[in-house]
Design brief:
The protein is α+β, with helices and mostly antiparallel strands. It has a single domain, classed as Oxidoreductase, molybdopterin-binding domain (Sulfite Oxidase, Chain A, domain 2, Alpha-Beta Complex), CATH 3.90.420.10. It is about 15% helix and about 20% strand. It contains eight helices and twelve strands. The strands form three sheets. A five-stranded mixed beta sheet has the order 2-1-10-5-6. Strands 3, 4, 7, 8 and 9 form a five-stranded antiparallel beta sheet that branches. Strand 3 and strand 4 form a beta hairpin. The longest helix has 11 residues. It starts with 16 loop residues before the first helix and ends in a 13-residue tail after the last helix.
Length: about 300
């Protein structure tokens, strides 16, 4: 769907977003500690390219009216229409598996608001199209540090809320519900991996995965699970929804790799939402300098 220029209202609230972004970089990013030292990263690990100030964010209207959220329907316009009354408070997240701090946490306790943690990140996101989103989020590593993973924790599994009364798409067996996703521990600990709680300086809209979603900017969008209610640390690789649905089309890693075509279409080019022309797809969605070392020695045509 091509949005007419006359329908787009720039988010003037973030005309100073470059200044805010630079402030976020200056504050630095939280690193791992204790038993997750093997996955420690610092702000120095993020190249200038990752937070490229030339990236212009898509408009708030574009970002919030063209969504993939199958729990609310398969059409891109369905989530904005059908998630309006989705109840996101109170909200809790269950933490389980290979960690010391097991339990069910109120979201405000697990993700406390802090000027030192919740910041602006302007990341490219890729699904069947691409867009640039000014997320407000907290590095996932911050939360993992708080729950104290054991040495057995090698993967992190996430689950979306299962509530067909609120999520009408779950009444259809399009996918195996509830939606599940997973990351390797070093991917989860990387400072580019966020738990997003808002965008454009506002709370996360329902259709974008309120109240909290995952954002992994070097992977395809289906990896960024929405409306998270469970974080489970595991010793073995978890099952993921799209890998279960079509393992020949959707691998566990889901890294943006233009050299590997989807069985039904080429991934060599992408179209940014709002643009007419397609552009070459960048390896790792443009974050190659920051994340390629995570996959050193791996065959990314087989482990896609």
């Amino acid at each position: 769907m091509k949005i007419k220029p006359s329908e787009i209202t720039p988010a003037s609230l973030f005309s100073n977003r470059r200044r805010l972004l630079n402030s976020a970089i200056a504050l630095g990013l939280v690193t791992a500690a204790n038993r997750v030292d093997a996955y420690t990263f610092t702000a120095a690990d993020i190249s200038k390219r990752s937070l490229d100030k030339t990236l212009e964010a898509n408009t708030y209207k574009e970002i919030t009216t063209y969504n993939n959220f199958y729990e609310f329907g398969v059409d891109k316009s369905d989530p904005a229409k059908l998630a309006r009354h989705f109840k996101t408070a109170p909200w809790s997240i269950k933490v389980s598996g290979e960690c010391d701090q097991l339990g069910t946490y109120d979201i405000d306790r697990l993700l406390p608001k802090s000027k030192l943690e919740e910041r602006l990140y302007r990341f490219r996101c890729v699904e069947a199209w691409s867009m640039v989103v000014p997320w407000i989020g907290i590095p996932l590593s911050t939360i993992l540090k708080r729950v104290a993973p054991t040495s057995k924790a090698k993967f992190v599994e996430f689950r979306t809320l299962f509530d067909p009364t609120q999520m009408p798409g779950q009444k259809r067996q399009i996918l195996q519900w509830p939606y599940t996703e997973g990351l390797r521990m070093d991917e989860a600990m990387h400072p580019l991996t966020l738990l997003a709680t808002g965008l454009y300086g506002k709370p996360l809209p329902n259709q974008n995965g309120a109240p909290v979603r995952l954002v992994v900017p070097w992977k395809y969008g289906f990896k960024s699970i929405k409306s998270i209610v469970s974080i489970n640390l595991t010793a073995s690789q978890p099952q993921t929804t799209w890998n279960h649905r079509a393992p020949n089309e959707y691998g566990f890693y889901a890294n943006v790799n233009p050299a590997v075509d989807h069985p039904r279409w080429s991934q060599k080019t992408e179209r940014r939402l709002g643009d007419f022309f397609r552009h070459p797809t960048l390896p790792f969605n443009g974050y190659q300098a920051d994340v390629a070392d995570l996959y050193r020695g791996m065959d990314l045509t087989r482990l896609f």
